[in-house]
Amino acid sequence: MKVLGINALFHDPAAALVVDGRTVAAAEEERFSRRKHGHRPVPFAAWELPELAARWCLESAGLDITDVDAVAYSYDPDLARPADELGLDDPWDHLRQTYARRAPGFLATALPGLDPAAVRFVPHHVAHAASAGLASPHHDAADVLVLDGRGEAASHLAGRYEQGRLEVLRTQELPHSLGLLYENVTEHLGFLRSSDEFKVMALASYGRPRFLDELRRAVYTTGDGGFHTDPIDLAALVKPRGAEAEWTADHADLAASVQHRLEEVLLELVGWLHERTGGRVLTLAGGVALNCVANTRLLDSGPYDDVWVQPAAGDAGTALGGALHVARAEGDLTAAMPGADLGRGWSEAELEAWLTTARVPFERPDDVAETVAECLAGDGVVAWFQGRSEYGPRALGRRSLLAHPGHERNLERLNDVKGREQFRPVAPMVLAERAARIFSRGPLPSPYMLFVHDVDPAWRDRIPAVVHVDGTARVQTVDGDADPLLHRMIEGFERRTGLPVVVNTSLNTAGRPMVDDPRDALECFGSAPVDLLAIGPFVVRRPKGV
User: Fold this and answer.
1) What CA–CA distance (Å, rounded) separates 388 from 407?
2) Which domains are delineated in the chain?
3) How far apart are CA 533 and CA 522, in angstroms?
4) H or E stretch at 454
5) Helix axes 249-277, 197-204, angle to 10 degrees
6) Are 167 and 143 in contact (CB under 8 A)?
């Protein structure tokens, strides 16, 4: 069965293709449209059909829309209720519901040849759950927890997958929402809600949770698998920060407080779930699951032996989850996703044609991995564009900016290159076989950069650029079988420096989506102080003095 998955309602519009139960392709519309998270002016902030991503998914598999058996749309308007009934202040919600109900017609217009009757509405949190439970390596038996801002009328789902069937054990009705709470704090701290929540997580490490008592009174579990998030006057705790204003200790303390309370509540929720299932493995999805600090706390202090997080845990992942859910419901045996590299890629001939058309000097070294290792060892910054792009918000060695971790100034340097706040950390990529010598507490291997790890004190001075202020790092392990080119490059760097680690951050500049195609890569390289672009087997060097 061929199922096209679509997310196109709140934010992060995306498409995914599942053929005979196997994930073939998945991509976010922002990589094509260059509108980050699909954001547009209100009221059309996210009502963007991922038509470019959908067409690419089909083309990559050699299919036409008429070949598709079903289209899974990751929202069911029949489950929705008016925002005012749910206690939400959302003046555009009625238009959102109208848009969702008319989605089959809109999709048929965007993808000529589609029969609107082929569109299946999948409940939003069921799609999230499937993106975790059915896409994980533990898809035959796993508990699942979904937490985000909101779905049709809820913000949470707790359940269990057995042989591909989901048993829902608990949902939490709106307006109570841990995701919306975190969004409110994000906005109060001067960041963009539904986009910059990771900045709050990073800022939390600079503060003390001195508002924890106030948050504990307002945010608490109810003993039955649910929770309450009562209204909080954030301005009574901390003066709101303007978007251009400097952050203060008060702002960091508020970030620390909400982060700490989030972790406490999550531990109570997974404790309740585990008591009912006795499961060994927990899978996570929903925007809250992108909080790597909380994920590590769940693994470290929670009752599960293993925690697996969907790499596209935000709403983009519901495109894949919806498709997997429909495929399974129709009788296909679904398989774990093969990795996060599910987006676009180019052949050597195509890349060479791009470079020739752009009229930039380029060369094809004997081994691009060794050339990059040499540049990094000499403290160069490298734009790394290799293979198929990542599905989800993390750069995982396909569309990355790389640097030497042994120079502390490279944190500031890369944040300047990207035009972002200096309190934000950059991440280490490490050879999987060396990781346990350097990093502890978080899970190893950790291929998707969705947990934080403690950096061994003996290594903190050796790789200072990737050590956050609290002594942790958001690690990505690199396996030689899964990614031989990247692994070989880090090996080359280790031979030259003694360090089996390189700095990795996403290949983009502030406010722009991650680089996805060769044109994006050349534009980013041309506009940012990057020394070398490694694009397929080719390299482009920054002219000296430029």
Assistant:
1) 30
2) 2-74+77-121+315-329 (3.30.420.40), 154-162+169-309 (3.30.420.40), 348-541 (3.90.870.20)
3) 8
4) strand 453-455
5) 100
6) no
> d(Cα 124, Cα 144) in Å, to the nearest integer?
14
Beta bridge partners of 400: 384, 506
Q: Which of 11, 124, 125, 487 is catalytic?
A: 11
Burial class (CB in 10 A: 0-12, 13-18, 19+), 458: exposed
Per-residue pLDDT at 36: 76
Using DSSP's 3-state secondary structure scheme, residue 185 falls into helix
465 contacts 381 by C-beta, under 8 angstroms: no
What's this model's pTM, rounded to 2 decimal places?
0.95
Q: What does the buried/exposed string (b/e) look like for 512-523 if buried means 16 or more CB atoms within 10 Å of the residue's CB?
A: bbbbbbbebbbb
- What's the Cα-to-Cα distance from 368 to each of 358, 411, 512, rounded to whole Å? 20, 25, 27
Q: How far apart are CA 487 and CA 484, in angstroms?
A: 5
Gap between the Cα atoms of 144 and 273, Å rounded: 9
Amino acid at 418: K
Please indicate whether residue 156 is annotated as part of the active site. no
- The pLDDT assigned to 45 comes to 44
Number of Cα atoms under 13 Å in the Cβ half of residue 25: 25
**Rounded Cα distance, 210 and 12, in Å:** 34
Positions of the chain with pLDDT lower than 70, given as ranges: 37-47, 545-546
